């Protein structure tokens, strides 16, 4: 059975979202695209701030946008992330924690770089034994 999402399309959407990044401090642009169970896609880019601790990653922009639009934990089937890194970019610890809260452990995470390298992992493998209070998504 083929997967219920098209990884190449999701990565293309993440690549377009990356162009929208507001990253005047790091100059490091990241894009993400999150697909919901009903086929919607939420794109996200990183949004930085002069108070550096307020910088928000592309992954969390996409996840928070989906939640703000009414989607619930567990309503997501895949996320793609892309940046200009030598190897496919890999999410920071904060994003891993948020992914673990809002997505199922076996949800695919597609990681890519702008040169075309890509690999696939899961939310659970990115944060084994993560902290949680809420029941699993
Ligand atoms: O997976 C990642 C890693 C980093 N960033 C952002 C945060 C910051 O704006 C910039 C440099 O860390 O890249 C993301 O958006 N996603
Ligand atoms: Zn992050």
From TrEMBL:
Any Pfam family matching the protein: dCMP_cyt_deam_1
Domain (CMP/dCMP-type deaminase): residue spans on this chain: 5-134
Enzyme Commission code(s) on record: 3.5.4.5
UniProtKB keywords: Hydrolase, Metal-binding, Zinc
Gene3D superfamilies: Cytidine Deaminase, domain 2 (3.40.140.10)
Presence of the UniProt keyword Metal-binding in the record: yes
Top-level EC class as recorded in UniProt: hydrolase
UniProt superkingdom: Bacteria
Known catalytic reactions: 2'-deoxycytidine + H2O + H(+) = 2'-deoxyuridine + NH4(+); cytidine + H2O + H(+) = uridine + NH4(+)
Required co-factors: Zn(2+)
InterPro entries (alphabetical): APOBEC/CMP_deaminase_Zn-bd, CMP_dCMP_dom, Cyt/Deoxycyt_deaminase, Cyt_deam_tetra, Cytidine_deaminase-like
Record's keyword annotation contains tRNA processing: no
Family designation: Belongs to the cytidine and deoxycytidylate deaminase family.
Function field: This enzyme scavenges exogenous and endogenous cytidine and 2'-deoxycytidine for UMP synthesis.
Protein name, as recorded: Cytidine deaminase
Lineage, uppermost ranks: Bacteria, Pseudomonadati, Pseudomonadota, Gammaproteobacteria, Lysobacterales
Gene: cdd
């Amino acid at each position: 059975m083929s997967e219920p999402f098209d990884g190449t399309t999701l990565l293309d959407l993440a690549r377009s979202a990356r162009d929208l990044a507001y990253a005047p401090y790091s100059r490091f642009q990241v894009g993400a695209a999150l697909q919901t169970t009903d086929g919607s896609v939420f794109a996200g880019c990183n949004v930085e701030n002069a108070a550096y601790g307020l910088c928000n990653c592309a992954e969390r922009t996409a996840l928070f946008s989906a939640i703000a639009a009414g989607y619930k934990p567990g309503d997501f089937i895949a996320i793609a992330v892309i940046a200009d890194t030598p190897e496919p970019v890999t999410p920071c610890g904060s994003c891993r924690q948020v992914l673990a809260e809002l997505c199922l452990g076996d949800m695919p995470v597609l990681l890519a770089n702008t040169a075309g390298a890509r690999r696939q992992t899961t939310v659970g493998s990115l944060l084994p034994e993560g902290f949680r209070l809420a029941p699993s998504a």
